[in-house]
Write a structure and sequence with these properties.
The protein is α+β, with helices and mostly antiparallel strands. It has 10 helices and 8 strands. Strands 1-2-4-3-8-7-6-5 form an 8-stranded mixed β-sheet, with helices on both faces.
Length: about 280
């Protein structure tokens, strides 16, 4: 059995995330605000993780941050730093903003009535609360939420979250689906880790509630809290899949982001199974 190839190096002194290119520098992810008083994290590029995508007949990237080990493990140093539309992974910040602004007061009681428009994903064709909407990734509900938040407040919080390129151009209910917003896996981990630590610049209540409504998958004695994304899902033209979140194994935490080209139905279904395989390989579950 051939051992996996590991490319290891120390991260150079922390730079601004926006001044770095590629994973080896960009693991400033682990953000200045989080690392101000500690040594930079170690990192590894594992070819065996990259092979999982090619074996599936697609292209993609996986990045995991093992919090307690202070270790970043990634499949590559190119795609891990490439910004892409977040698709429904933006439901995480959208939910936070909805709760923080009062657009949603209670994720279990506030109801968004179905508008009566039949859509190809049957689970969307019903009334939803915030909890049920995130569970089935109901795009129309979150588009209505974004319209109620409005451009001014949306921009304010996207800026305060330092989310991706911060660009909400392209329509208040479209910018994360077809518009100008871009985020890379390293930036996804930065954002999700701040939510995990309740370190975002909003109330703890909003962060607690969103962490609670995130879909949960149990694997053995581990728990994965994650949000999927599928670019083009609302048009029936899938092209890019995401899975972002964190895994809990006892007291150990691993924050992760995966994206992959989804040109075939099997690739859509493989997002979670591939995420689990990558997490298992790095000892996160």
């Amino acid at each position: 059995m051939v051992a996996p190839v590991l490319h290891c190096s120390r991260i150079p002194p922390l730079l601004s995330r926006r001044s770095t290119l590629g994973l080896l520098a960009a693991a400033s992810i682990l953000p200045q605000r989080a690392l101000a008083h500690v040594a930079p994290p170690r990192n590894e590029i594992r070819d065996s993780l990259a092979k999982r995508f090619t074996d599936l007949g697609t292209a993609g990237t996986f990045v995991g941050y093992k919090v307690e080990d202070y270790l970043i493990v990634a499949s590559d140093k190119e795609r891990s730093g490439e910004g892409k539309l977040p698709a429904s992974t933006f439901k995480i910040p959208n939910s936070l903003i909805a709760l923080e602004t009062g657009v949603v007061a209670d994720p279990d009681k506030d109801v968004f009535p179905w508008d009566g428009v039949k859509r190809p994903i049957e689970a969307w064709n019903k009334d939803h609360t915030l909890r049920s909407a995130i569970a089935v990734s109901a795009v129309p509900v979150y588009q209505e939420i974004a319209r109620r938040i409005g451009e001014v407040r949306m921009q304010k919080y996207v800026d305060e979250f330092d989310y991706g390129n911060r660009d909400i151009g392209g329509g208040i209910d479209q910018f994360w689906l077809t518009g100008a917003l871009r985020i890379d896996p390293v930036e996804q981990i930065d954002f999700v880790d701040r939510l995990r630590r309740r370190a975002l610049p909003i109330s703890k209540r909003s962060q607690d509630l969103v962490a609670d409504i995130l879909p949960v998958t149990k694997v053995g004695d581990s728990v994965i809290r994650a949000k999927s994304g599928l670019l083009g899902a609302e048009r029936g033209e899938p092209s890019l899949g995401w899975m972002v979140g964190w895994a809990e194994k006892g007291e150990a935490h691993t924050v992760f982001a995966l994206n992959m080209d989804c040109k075939e139905p099997r690739h859509i279904e493989a997002r979670m199974s591939l995420t689990q395989a990558c997490l298992a390989e790095i000892g996160a579950i």
